[in-house]
């Protein structure tokens, strides 16, 4: 059974009790944002979790597509040597002559030289492939090694409203670069006990970067992903996350559904692959919530 199709639909009226969402808070409808007349400078968001398989790339693609649909100019940065974000938007990483690696390592290559258009209006991509894995070693001896990505993105940040960085599942130098460049952090968190255990370490790393490298950095929110409301385990994990992080947890929860991998295979966002599916509406709701929180213009 597709858990995405089991999502409850609540109808609110003045005489009915307030419906409670999976995070234990009343369900709110966030206002539909208006398209922006002017664009830039971008707010930079790092999508970070040192555990793999928690929905970082899926959330980067679909949240980016939802923001673009609301009239924001969005740049997605693939900062994982596996290149999953690039594949998810229809590129073959092995065929790329220039990637984010070249932007980081060569002053003769700018981000604008490497950015490619996606099939989604207002959504561009700065791709990556396995070459990026060498950057972590090569940057060790560089001066201001934690700020290389920030300098690279400064070349194009005036052209976009939102730049989202899809980080590798690690807390190494590449992820520290992403946190140093970012204004905010979104932490996708699988609704599973072992995924929960690493969040405290991640928050500690974010606080160190705030203290030593990037005082403007803030946690925009923790996003519960792969939620299955039919299982006690999923509900307990969400309860514990809300108990620990309170208002830092997004009210929007992303349900587990087979439509997400189906959309990935088709190299599309779920918003174009299955626009009426509850998963597509969940990412639209997340985009509205992020904008209402000030996490995106």
From TrEMBL:
Matching SUPFAM superfamilies: P-loop containing nucleoside triphosphate hydrolases
Domain AAA: 43-219
Pfam families: AAA_31
Membrane spanning stretches: none
PANTHER family: COBYRINIC ACID AC-DIAMIDE SYNTHASE, P-LOOP CONTAINING NUCLEOSIDE TRIPHOSPHATE HYDROLASE
Protein name as annotated: AAA family ATPase
